[in-house]
Write a structure and sequence with these properties.
heterodimer; A: 331 residues; mainly alpha; Formate dehydrogenase/DMSO reductase fold; B: 271 residues; Alpha-Beta Plaits; 2 domains; 4-stranded mixed sheet; 8 helices
């Protein structure tokens, strides 16, 4: 039997991506921010109501209502066929985080709307309490399902961070909701919002670091270069500064306003970092092929004729991690 | 319909498996004529989507997309005694575990009675989630004429329903693209690999013909003459929803952390 044709290993097809870049527009990361903010604010409002802190509860409720009002508008605007947004409600699929999320947004938006209307007109206190409880209980899902949504994809930087992304988003949600509500609330009632903001900032920073470290050099590269890298740096700086200011001068209203704004900006930037990291990651064929190739080389290769595979897989792993194709034109 | 066996492994019910059709693309006989691309465009009335010169050999089509459902790849390789061509006509894989179908939030994507995966254009609202769920980068968003919907190969559902073969297979002059019941194609493909190995073409191998792979096997599989990534194909594709348990668990845990954070925030009183 003759040997295989010997040839140079070409790690990609002219450097072209293997998976498609996500087609989502910036409305989507903006929604990740507003939805997260709305969710954590709803839970904060419920906590404040249970603790008898009505001053805080009202501010959290308004924050929640504002954020949840914007959210569906952003989602619908991003659709390729916005007039068909109701088609989302034809089905309920656990296999589709977007389907589950659509129902969460719909239910929690309805509850928030009812709660806010009752509060505004000072009517139906029991209905208001029930609506607030509903929105407050859905809040944690509203804040974190978006992490599951992007993780359930073939985009290497998203799927590879499936364990960390919901925590990154939960942290950002708490930081932004706590920060905004603390900025809107008189200092003597805003203690829980400040503490939530600080804890959220800590969780966001820690889980972002865990995510970037966990992805490793090749797949995690987008978080250190290009637009994703810029947003990631801005997010870290704003979140760290906002958290520190909230802890030190947050008891003063002016301090809370500055700190809360920084935390909101930090959470927004982190969502844009994740969004752009996904785009940059999908565009790099090696971020898709090299981890798959290593995985395959780890398994016993089932085809005894393909004896040259392990040798060349090692070459693939040590190949430069740029997307530059190695084309061997015969000329 | 995909059924779950007692061990949790999901596959086709036996009677449905018999009806499952697909493509066997034997790239060893592809001559790069692009008749498949043209036939597909014509039959499916796909719009023109840019006339560009890529400089990538004879490939000016670039990739599968909303308006390109067959794409012929051209690879030029330096080998022992000069150079060789690899030509391969790529298409939607009609996966057994189809990520696009799993994540579609409108139910626009469905599995047909022939075991193929099709987007219902009148239901799709253009959310784009399927684009991120395809391990092969097959689906695209049509930006032409304000369409906004997602499109991909239907395995010529409007032909196969009536017992006709898909346009690309019909047009292929070398039978590089073969259409038929999937099990027949698999048997034929295995025979073809043996034949090639006997003829000294050791590098011939089947791609996506294994039911135990990350997508549960494909309805469109290939005979390749080099590693998949050389053709722009993923070496070990996995449907993203395979990790859904882990994904939802992380989301629940993060939600629980959020609740705990709010609860703890109230321990210190109002001030």
């Amino acid at each position: 039997m003759s040997a295989s044709v010997s040839r140079d290993y070409q790690p990609s097809y002219y450097g072209r991506p293997i998976v498609k870049e996500p087609v989502w527009k910036p409305e989507i990361p903006t929604y990740f921010f507003t939805g997260g903010l709305a969710g954590a604010a709803a839970t904060l409002a419920l906590g404040a109501r249970l603790a008898g802190n009505d001053t805080l509860a009202r501010r959290a409720l308004w924050t929640n209502a504002a954020a949840i009002t914007v959210s569906p508008l952003l989602l619908i605007k991003d659709l390729g066929r916005p007039m068909r947004f109701l088609n989302m409600l034809r089905v309920f699929k656990v296999r589709s985080p977007m389907s589950v999320g659509t129902w969460i947004v719909s239910a929690s938006g309805t509850a928030s709307g009812v709660g806010a209307a009752c509060e505004l007109f000072g009517v139906l206190p029991r209905v208001r309490a029930a609506a607030e409880a509903g929105a407050g209980l859905l809040g944690p899902f509203l804040s974190t399902y978006t992490g599951a949504l992007v993780a359930d994809s073939v985009v290497p930087a998203w799927h590879g961070a499936r364990r960390e992304l919901p925590f990154v988003f939960a942290g950002g949600s708490c930081a932004s909701a706590g920060g905004v509500v603390a900025a809107l609330t008189p200092a003597w009632s805003a203690g829980p919002a400040r503490r939530l903001a600080i804890a959220g900032a800590a969780l966001e920073l820690a889980s972002t670091k865990a995510m970037e470290d966990g992805l490793g050099e090749l797949v995690g590269k987008p978080y250190h270069e290009g637009r994703a890298g810029t947003y990631a740096k801005a997010a870290k700086a704003a979140t760290a500064a906002g958290g520190l200011l909230m802890a030190t001068v947050g008891r003063r209203r002016a301090g809370a306003i500055v700190a809360g704004s920084l935390l909101a900006v930090g959470a927004l930037c982190e969502r844009f970092a994740v969004y752009h990291a996904g785009k940059q990651s999908a565009a790099d064929p090696l971020a898709t092929s090299i981890p798959q190739r290593s995985r395959k080389a780890d398994e016993a290769f089932p085809d005894p004729l393909a004896t040259s595979i392990p040798q060349r897989s090692r070459n693939a792993n040590s190949a430069p991690t740029s997307a530059t194709p190695k084309t061997s034109h015969a000329t | 319909m995909i059924v779950a066996e007692p061990d949790g492994h999901e596959t086709y019910a036996p009677e449905e498996r018999q009806r499952r059709v697909g493509f066997f693309t034997d790239t060893s006989v592809c001559i790069g004529c692009k008749a498949c691309e043209v036939a597909c465009k014509e039959w499916n009335l796909l719009p023109e989507d840019g006339l560009v010169w890529t400089g990538h050999s004879y490939d000016n089509t670039r990739e599968l997309d909303a308006n390109t459902w067959r794409h012929v790849a051209f690879v030029e390789q330096r080998v022992d005694d000069g150079m060789r061509w690899l030509m391969s006509s790529d298409v939607c894989k009609h996966c057994t575990h189809a990520g696009c179908l799993d994540v579609c939030p409108t139910g626009a994507i469905f599995r047909t009675e022939l075991g193929t995966v099709v987007i219902q254009d009148d239901v799709c609202n253009g959310c784009g989630y399927c684009v991120t769920a395809c391990p092969f980068g097959v689906i695209g968003k049509r930006e032409i004429d304000g369409d906004g919907g997602m499109h991909k190969c239907t395995l010529c559902y409007d032909r196969t329903q009536d017992g006709l073969e898909p346009a690309c297979a019909k047009a292929c002059p070398t039978e590089s693209i073969q259409y038929g019941p999937l099990d027949d194609l698999l048997e034929r493909a295995r025979g073809r690999v043996e034949e090639l190995h006997e003829a000294g073409v050791d590098e011939a191998r089947l791609y996506l013909a294994d039911e135990d792979d990350g997508i549960g096997g494909a309805g469109a599989f290939f005979l390749l003459l080099d590693e998949p990534e050389v053709y722009g194909l993923p070496p070990d594709p996995v449907v993203p929803t395979r990790d859904l348990g882990e994904i939802w668990s992380a989301a629940f845990a993060a939600g629980a952390a959020l609740v705990a954070g709010v609860a703890v925030a109230f321990l210190g009183g109002s001030r």
